[in-house]
Amino acid sequence: MKYSKGFTLIELMIVVAIVGILSAVALGWYGDNVIAANRSEGRATLTQVAASLEKCKSLFGAYNAADCNVANPVMSESNLYSIDTTTDRTATTFTLTASPAGRQLADTDCTSMTLTNTGIKGGVPAVNECW
Asked: Which residue segment(s) compose the domain that 22 sits in?
């Protein structure tokens, strides 16, 4: 009797199914990690804008974004976050809010991040998810 060497079609299909399942799990995990890593861009932009407003207060005595040419909104480097810098002319406090934009809108674990002039960090739904 002569035996053929190789794989049967059933064995090949089982391997393809296993590889497909592993790929689906890996791609989902990878996408979630990319979204979580992109939050660092929002945090960095919040910190930069807060530093600009602190400089503004030292120069003009108030956190007035308009006097210091701080745009509203400020977009992060890759346009993943939009930072709201609305303040009034006599502002003695500020709360900056970073909202996801573009492909970061898929981030359901952190729908916004906040930073105040006293350094209090916040996030929706939970600060530990965002910061």
From this structure: 11-130
